[in-house]
Structures are given as C-alpha cells and as structure tokens.
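## Example record

The block below lists the input lines for one assembly entry, exactly as stored, with component labels intact.
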Amino acid sequence: MKPPPFEYHAPVSVDEALAALAETGPHGKVLAGGQSLIPLLNMRLAAPSHLVDINRVGELNTIAARPGGVRVGALARHAAVERSAEAAAVLPLLRQALALVAHPVIRNRGTVVGSLVHADPSAEMPAVLALLGGSVRLARLGGEREVAAADFFTGPMESAVEPGELAVSAFFPAPPPRSGTAFQEVARRHGDYAVAGMAALVTLDEDLRIAAARVACVSVGPAPVVIDLSDACDRRPAASVPWDAVAAAVRDRIDPDGDIHATAEYRRHLTGVLAVRALKDAARNAGTEAADE
Amino acid sequence: MTTKLFGEPVQRREDARLVTGQGRYLDDLGPGALAAAFVRSPHAHARIKDIDVSAALDVEGLVAVYTWEDLPGALAEPLPLLIPHPALTHGRTAYPLAKDIVRHVGEPVVMVVAADRYLAEDACALIEVEYEFLKPVVGVEEAAQGVHLVHEDVPGNVGAHLVQEVPSREGRSAAEAIDAAPNRLEFRLDIERSASMPLEGRGVYARWDADDGSLRVYSSTQTSTSVRMAVAAKLGLPLPKVEVIAPDVGGGFGVKIVHPWPEEILVPWAARTLGREVKWTEDRREHFVSSAHERAQVQHVRVGFDDEGHVLGLDVTILHDHGAYTPYGIIVPIITSTQLLGPYKIGAYRVEFSSIYTNTVQVTPYRGAGRPQGVFCMERTLDRVAAYLGKDRTEVRAANFIGPDEFPYDQGLIFQDGRPLVYDSGNYPESLRMLKELIGWDSFPEMKARAAAEGRRIGIGIGCYVEGTGVGPYEGGHVQVTSDGRVHVSTGLTSQGQGHETVFAQIAATELGVPIERVSVVTGDTRRFGYAVGTFASRAAVMSGNAIALACRKVREKALRIAADALEADPRDLEITDGIVHVAGTPSASIPLATVAVLSNPLRYAFDEETKRATQFSGTSAPDRPPVDEGEEPGLEGRDYYSPIRSTFASGMHAAIVETDPETAEITILRYAVVHDCGKLINPMIVEGQIHGGVAQGVGGALYEKMVYDEHGQLLNASFMDFLMPYATEVPRIETAHLETPSPLNPLGVKGAGEAGVIPVSAVIASAIEDAEGIPIDRMPISPSDLHTLRLRLAG
Ligand SMILES: Cc1cc2nc3c(=O)[nH]c(=O)nc-3n(C[C@H](O)[C@H](O)[C@H](O)COP(=O)(O)OP(=O)(O)OC[C@H]3O[C@@H](n4cnc5c(N)ncnc54)[C@H](O)[C@@H]3O)c2cc1C
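Predicted structure tokens for the full assembly:
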C-alpha cells in the first residue's frame, strides 16, 4: 500500500497552483486534505503523475459568512467550518451536517471543497450544497467559472472539475426567513459514511404552515437526489402533515442499490423513515427561527 | 511497599512505554533494511502459466526477484502441517511461493526485494503473471457437494471428518435419546467469517552475520521459539546459530500463532542469500487476503428434551469452512464440537464435523478459537427449548447445569490437547445467580413493558460458556537474582499486549518477597529462554505463571539456605521481606538478597566493593568444602517448567439488554454484564481489561464483522472501510463481577482469562434481539438491514 511514483508540486499562491495545473493537465491532481486521495494513491487505484499540493496556499483558507450565505475557501477544513460560529449563525446546516462527516481527526484535515470535488454519493456536503442550490467556483489559468450544484455532481465520484481546474471556493446560500434545516442519517458505525441519510430544508409561511419542503438524499443514487416535498406536505403545520404519504413520496423518487451493508429494499425503507425525521426536525427548527424573528 | 502483590490491581508496567510511543514494534526496527514486497494472486483458483519479471528489472533500486523455482531445498517444499490429527486425512498446506496453482486471492507468487517498500511495490506492479483460470470453489455448502475441487487429490473437498459420540448414562445413543424424548426440535444455524485483525499486522526482519554464520530474526509472532526451529529447519542452519525475538507485538488474537508464515522463512532466506538486512511489514490489504480468518460454520441441530427443559439428546452436524489450507490442523472444529457443551451435562451427545476446503483464505484460530460457534449453537438451542416450553431462559439453563459438587466432571470427549475433557472446578449456579442480580433479570419484564408503552422495543439475552484454558504441553520460567539485588525473569512465550510484564513480575515479587520495581520480565526472546510453546489458548498465566512461580520457589529455597549459613540460623526460620532475608520475628538478624546473590557465586575476581565478600580470601567459604558444593551451581538462579496433566476450565456468563429501533432496525446495546470465573485472580484490573477487549471483539462478531466473498472468490470488503470493526463508540460500558473457584490443577490455582470475553457475545446479542423482536435469530452477525429483512419476512 504505497503510491506509485509522482512528481510533487508545492505552490504557495493560487496563480502558482493554476500554472502547475495548466502545465500538467490531465496528469495532474490537486491534493487538499488528502483524506480521500491518499488512500486511493496508496491502494494504487489512482496514479496521477503529478500532485499539486494546495496546503501552502494560504489565500484559500477562508470562511466568509454573509447574510446571504457562506463562502468556503478550498483550504477550509471540515473542522474549521464546523466550529465557525459565524457560519453556523447564517447556516446551521453546515454544522449539523459536518458533525456527521467522519471522525474529528479526519475533519481536522479534510476540506469541505475537497469533499465536494470528490463527489462521493454517500458524502454529506454534496447533499448540503445540492439542497441549498449552492455553487462551486472553478479557476483555471486565465479564467474562472461558477458551476451550480445541479450541474456540478455529474456521477458517482465525478464532478464538473476539468483537468487544469482548481476549485477555489464553494458558496452555500442561506435559505429564506422562517426556514429550518436538519441532517439525519444512519451509519453502520459512528462516523461512517451513511447507509442512507439526508439534508432537509423546511420553510414556513406566516401561519407556520409548511410552505416549502425539500430533501437531498445521500447513498441512494449516483449523486445527491434532491426531492421537492412541498406538495406532499400539503401546506399544513408539521403536526398534521400526512407523514406516511411524505415517506412514500420519497421512496417513490429514489432508486437505491444494494451492497454488502444494506439491501436496496432496506435503503429505500430507511430513506423514507429518515426523510420524515429530518423534515420534522427542520420544521421544528424553522418554528424556533420564526419565533426569534 | 508491600511485596504481597498477587491478586492486587497493579497498574500495567508496560503501558507508560506503549502509550507514549516508546514501543518497539517490528516496523520500528531496521530502518535501513531492504524491503520485501509480494506479488499475490488476484484470482481465487488458477494455474500459473508464466511469470514475466522482465519489466520489473528496470526499476531503480531493485535488488532481487524470486519465484518458487528459485527456492532451494526444504524451502521449496510445502509449509509444515503444524498439528496433525488422524481425522485430518487430507491435510494440505501451501508452498512459500505458489508452485503451479494458486488457491485463494492473496496467495504469494513472487517475492521482490528492493531498496525500499515503494520501489518494491513499483517492481511488483510491473511483474506479469499469466494464469489459466480454474473453477473457484466458494461457500462451504457448495464446496461440500464436491462438484469442483480445491485440491485435485482431495475428493469432495473434505480435509477432515470426525464424529464424537457420548451415550447417555442409560446407554442410549443421541439418536435414540432424541427419538425417545417427549419434545424435539430441529434447526440450522449460520456463523459468518471474521478475523483476528490485530492493529499491527504480521512482519519479519532478518539480519545475517556472515562472519559468524548466524541469523537473527525479529518476527511479530505469538511463538518465537517455534519460529526459530522452523527457520533453522527450512534454511538448514544449526539451531544455536538462529535466534528469534518477538519485539513489542501490536496484537495477535491467534493469527500470529500460525507459523512459519511464507514471509517468515523467505525474508531470513533472502537476508542470508543477499548478505543484507531485509524486512517485510504486512499492510492491511495483505492482512485481509493472505493471513487467516475464522468462525465460518453451518450447523444442523437436533435436540430432544423433557418438559422441565432437561436436554436428553443433542445431535450437531457441522460444516466447517477451512479455506484453502490446513496448516493449523483441525483445532478450531475440534474446539467447537467439544466446548459446545459448556456448563451443561446433557443426556446423550453426538457431534460430527466435516472440514471443507474452499478457495478462500485459510481458517486458523482467532480469539475464542471455535468456541463462539459452539456456544452460539448450545445457547441458541437452550433459548429455543425455553421458548418451546414457555419457560424462563435462565430456568432451562439451571436445569442442565453441572452441580458445584460434581467436579471433576468428565464430559466423555477428547479435547484439543488430545486429552479427556474433564472440567477441574466451577460453580455455575452461583455465576447465574450473580449475573441475574447484576443485570436485573427478574425485574426486566417490567422494564420491557414500560419501554413498550413508550413505543420502544427492548430485549434481554443471556449466554453461558466454559473455556478450556492453559493447554500444555509446557512452559518454563527462569529467574535470576543478580548481585545488585535485581530479579530477572524470563519465559519463552511471547506477549502481544496482555500485560505479562506486570503479572509475571507480580508473581515473582510475591514469591521472592522483593519490591516489584526490582523485577524485570523478558518474554519471547530465544536468547533468554529457548524452550516454549507459545501464547494462545488463554495459557500464558497458567503455564508461564506457574513455571515462574516454581522457578522462584527454587531460587527462594537456595537463597534461604545461603542466608541461613551466613546468619547461622535455621532456613525454616527465615523470611524474605522487601528484598531482605531475615529471621522471622528478629528483623535485625538479616542479610539483603543482593548479598545472598553475591555469596552464591564464589569469585576469584571482585568487580566492586560488594562482591569482595565472595572472593577467596574473604573467609566466607568453609575451607573443608569445595566452593561450589556437589549438586550446587554458582549463582542465585532457578529454572523450572510447568506441564499440566490437562487444561483448566474457566467459565462465565454474560447478559445484555438491547434496543431495536422499530423503524430503522438499528440495534443498540443498552447494558452489558459479565460474570467471570478464571480461578484465582493474579491482577483483577488486567483480567477486566481482557474481558473488555474480548467483549469488544464479540460485539464485532455479533453485529458488524463478516468477510464477504463473491462467487469468484474475491473478498469484497478487504479494508477497514468495509470490514466493520466496532469503534469505541459501538462498544457498550461493560459491567463485571468476578467469581473465584481456584483450579486444583496448578500451584497458583489460576485459569486463563485471555479469550473469555469474546466467546458468548454473539449468543447473548442474538438472545436479546430475539427477545426484543420475537423473531428467531439463527445467524450472526446481524445488521439493521438483516433485521429489516427478517421483519418483512415475518410480516409477509
Ligand atoms: C475513515 C474516513 C471516513 C470518512 N467518512 C466520511 C463521511 O462520513 N462523510 C464524508 O463526507 N466524508 C468522509 N470521509 C472523507 C473526508 O471527508 C475527505 O476529507 C473528503 O472526502 C475529501 O476531502 P480532502 O480535503 O481530504 O480531499 P483530498 O483527499 O485531498 O482530495 C479528494 C479529491 O478531490 C480533489 N480535490 C480536492 N480539493 C480540490 C480542489 N480544491 N480543486 C480540485 N480538486 C480538488 C483531489 O484531487 C481528489 O481527487 C472520510 C474519510 C476517511 C479517511
């Protein structure tokens, strides 16, 4: 379990990093927290001939929380985002989701943007970005583009990042007022990737009825599966929503696979259960939010 | 500081070193050594057509490439079959490097030696092996049909077949007793594969001294003495020219008792051939596919019982999946079939096992060594009997217990050491009483009803076991008191973190009356002690503990004789306290043990002030006697061996309360209680630690761990990402209570404690889930997804 040979680049600025990526093209790979890439290298499942290590690029180590949302730089670690009070104030979902990402030591090193680019269909942060309708900013030598979440996750472990590109930041927009969020998942062991799970967003109207409800499911498709459940919630207060119908609506919309940890049938069942739990939590949080207004 | 330390919860002396990174594990040694790496078979069953190493030869830093054809003499022969048995009619072992056929994914085919491990793996990646595919045989039931063969010359894939039968007191066979019983049940049980999975994998590091013609081998092993003999034999070296040392070993749990591993003889051979230091450190992926697994069995049970729940006849047929080879013989299924009976005396018993080859990693003992399967069988059976009769599960167990006054109790079977299965001591009714009190068995129904009222499902489970521990043939101990008053203890068996440095020092300090700080302990180093068997079967405390105690008694006896001379006293009046020999009741008439050590060794040459007392003009020796009397030896040291007539039998009972989520089917252990009897406790804290670790591994086997092979013989979860060992977060707090029924078989009255914790856990958790869900649980492990499937089946 040792990686094949590669050439190592250690840029100290975004410009240097982009130059290295431009030069190495399809043979280059960005090294961020290394929590996913290093195992792939050690198992020789990936064999890039160049590694561009961005850990010295200080300008990427940013977390900017504004009323409209949170922009997370490529070097912001899971742990830093999780602990940021400013980010949590704008978007409690970041903290709710990050607490479920792996274990503290891995969160100390792994990055939020790296997790998005890695695009594991079981990962929490892609679901968060997809639920909120956020975006990722991609830079290349001489250019930049902002890719919406809906276009960013293109398949299992596949994202829209092209050779030569560096994801410099991700933007998580804040939901409208009277909104609440939650993350619910079942993992085999504490901190494992989820067998099934989801991020949920509920927005209440002025009478505290559910005006909009949405979930983004993990581990049930090639990429996060976003499902709008506003109709299923039937514009009712949480207490009188026909939750069984909501669960059924979720189960109808997903097509999970079975694997060694769970049958497809169990994943489908579980996703319905967790959707209801997450939406109830989110509605409760939205209620608290509304009361604070 | 008192010197009576036996039985005290002395803190582990090795921990400060181990938890501050001062441990010296295999890979910490030989930083400049060449590295070995292996090309391993990617196929479960194939014939090697051609091996092309040419592309690898260009790798910078490559030193050597070896295939089977390069191996000389005994190295080219199959590895030893360590434990032959008459029933193992078709024992088969692998070649160190595959000769023409590979029989499981991970079997070593080519060995590469290079300047470092990175380069060695680069070279491995460039070696091309051409294979002709053969039909992989996967799954023990499919293999037992014998349509395709793992070994061409093993018909039906049956390596061994053994039947043991004990008739009832009235002379009925099991079949007759079952047929005549008022109630009968018949069912099938399945137990998955798991593995030892020590944090540190295997590893070997060898240094050849060409001038001296000698070899030093470090191996992360559970038996350095036996590795030494195997290496000497395979390399054709004189035994005195080979020394083997087990450094700090990061866990073994059984897998490291197997030896010699291919790497364990290939690395020393390469070191000698190349005249360079060579090291190989197993990585996790290698450990998954090229070490050993355990557990996998399918059991068919028939039981007949009366209306009180007395088992009148029991018939168990076991299909044991042995993987591709049988280097460790049939120890695992023998233990399953004998230890299955646990603390019970039953009417008539018949057990039959077939040990079946499959194209998977070989199966050798893992902590518990066949007992978890046997206990699963017996305890599931008793739960079914209780359910059938509508009786409390503990009542049915109590009805079948061997009574406290029935020891020694002969089960009428032959145990893993080839000797009769005779229990030495125990008190099972008392264990059960303690367990019921600890977990609150009798008040559980109310707790369950309260939970149900809140929409929660909880259940309680129980499991009992008896564990044969401390198997022979022997261990030895050597104890030397040097002229500085230090006590040096050594024993040949090895340590993998159990706490031997502490408990052996406690024994020596107590026996010799010296402060523990003065005692040092060395294990697993053939330079210090050449005769040993190894560390397995919960045997270290029983075997080496007693041997060290006996060696200490020799030393003490000699010390008192010498001191009696010096003090002009009767040795029978002398005591040793805090390292000082004194006349009982007269502390002023005394002599330090250090001085006794000086006097024990008549000198011509002094090397310090103290030792002048032993030189020839000091007047301390009688002129009319030789300085070393006939029958005496110089020095204050002693060596002794302990060789028991048979095993000691520890026992225990566990109970758990689990909660199952009605919606998600998640399974949570709310409480876990253990009553444990390993005879006299040397160190209760260490025993508890052993129980905790064992239960943690048991939780793995009950809820998480399995080796998932597909139909091609590929292991689908060969990493810690997908092979789910429980984290600390998955292991419940463990409540323990100790019962001490001393073993009458050995001087210290101790029994083994190392494996106990793991043994009944699957049975206990199954029992509790069954109680919570009302669904029969007949296979382990069980995941939330499995439980969900069972619920659907029940509903549909
Ligand atoms: C034991 C364990 C458990 C885990 N459990 C979870 C879990 O439960 N949930 C979860 O979501 N994750 C989990 N992870 C993964 C962890 O969150 C990773 O940190 C994350 O997926 C990748 O982030 P990273 O910074 O480590 O990226 P790296 O490993 O450095 O890179 C991952 C991939 O993204 C690319 N990349 C990274 N950053 C950029 C960038 N700025 N621009 C372009 N490409 C980039 C790399 O080239 C590589 O292909 C776990 C990891 C481990 C080791």
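Chain A has three domains: 7-53, 62-173, 179-291. Chain A has a mean pLDDT of 97.
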